[in-house]
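Section handout 9: paired folding examples.
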Amino acid sequence: MWFRSFYGVPSSITSPDGRPVNALRGFLDAVAALIARERPHRLVVCDDWDWRPQWRVDCIPSYKAHRVAEPNPDVEPDVEVVPDELTPQVGWILDVLDAFGIPTAGATGFEADDVLGTLAARERRDPVVVVSGDRDLLQVVADEPVPVRVLYLGRGLSNATKFGPAEVAERYGVPANRAGPAYAELALLRGDPSDGLPGVAGIGEKSAMTLLAQYGSLERILEAADDPKSKLSKTFRKKLLDAREYVDAALPVVRVATDAPVTLSTKTDVLPLAAADPQRVATLAEQHGVSSSIARLQKALDGLPVS
């Protein structure tokens, strides 16, 4: 979301000392809008502690390789290409969240997607809304044991679409009874150039949708590919068999982890109704020139019911 804020808010938005604060302001405004819209009593901002985990790279070496800044096998970990003006703003965002007492979370060796997936899978009490502009998260939708929905920001927050299993099944033609896992299998088959995942050569999204609708799961598709007597066309059989090594390796890469060792920055994920450290919040607001965004965030919190 802070990448989206960085590119969506003009860099002419600066602090009193002239530093760009477009990502900081945009992110705070987005969080305020989300709180006002969804009215949560619990909230966690999930972060990449490892944006390109080695265990995923071991499976698929091309995974996010195009995003590595000056690849150097002697340097660990890989450094992601991030605009120079965004890098310091990430720290400022985390500072403001910490001053407010809004929880952040991460997991050593895992991406933010995995943190989101793990928290969603753990929940047994409250409905969950996962907020992301990454379609990969559609695989976490569920109805049980609690409703898990994904607020997809692909067209921006004002045009965000909320997906559950029914909506994922309708949009992508995957089986409704396993819409989340099937979406991950769809992504595996079609590939994802933005993550360096080639997919199965010759099988695009429409072909993958057709195969999953027909067979119900990747496992059954592969069983059909292995069976010369199946009704699977020779063309698809050859494509799948030729890509079998990739398919086997890509499964753990594409699937969002649900068992990441998540660490929270606070003792609880209850959303505070007022800043934990008002003086620090005021200092940060003045320092970065984002008093109006801080006010909007507090106004959104003021609108929440007292539990």
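Moving on to protein 2 of 2.
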Amino acid sequence: MATDAIMSHEVQDENELWAGGKEPFGASYGKLMMWYFLLSDAFTFAGFLISYGTLRFSMPTWPLPDFVFSSLPGGIHHAPLIFVTFMTFVLIMSSVTMVRAVQEGHNGNRMGVVKWMGWTIVGGAMFLSCQAWEWTTLIGTEHMSVITNPFGTHVTDGVYLEDEHGHPYAAGEKAETFTAHHTYLIEKEKDEATGKEEWIHRKFKTKDGEIGQQEFGPKAFGALFFFITGFHGFHVFSGVLFLTIILVNAASGLYQNRGNHYEMVEKIGLYWHFVDLVWVFVFLVYYLL
């Protein structure tokens, strides 16, 4: 009898073990799959940033972010990292509004979810608009591309022999000097004779008396910038799109009728926080270091 009881208990335990319907770590299937996706995406971004660090430290020179990212809308220059700091602030604040949307979902407040998700969408759209302006400035005004990096860096002190238009200084005109590790921008100027834009490579003399001219910076700088920030921007765009769809569903009462405490809002919240966290690392690695 005792043996039968033990065997019956073991069969019961086995049946309960394989019965299904139990949520690992208290997380639903949807949340678990979202965590798997975010983990794989984290490895992808980590690979990109590690590649950036490897290429950067293998180059003899690298443009200084303070010089490259120093423009503001309205023609304002020499304001290092102000614009990208504003972009970062907007994205972080959108995470705060996302937290409030999830909280309102847990409380079953449909209009609260709609309101705070709406503000999250506004924050994401503002970030994308800022990134579009940054790309437009770098590509259209400063002529940076994935194959051309007009931002070069001097390796020693010296003095320019030509002005910013590529013309020799007039007699008595004070020449511009530069120091080692100073980043410069090679600009384009239209040739009056041909009507074509040409790069202006200013000539200079180093403190050792050597004559040289401005050279393009490492190609990897532009390629990595557009690829990494573009890949992140695609994630933000996708997030804004999904947020909009979920907001419409929430406003229609779909999630409230399901009675699952707005789990879909919580899942898109996980994705949005991940996107914000990745940007913090991009901001640190590409813009600050």
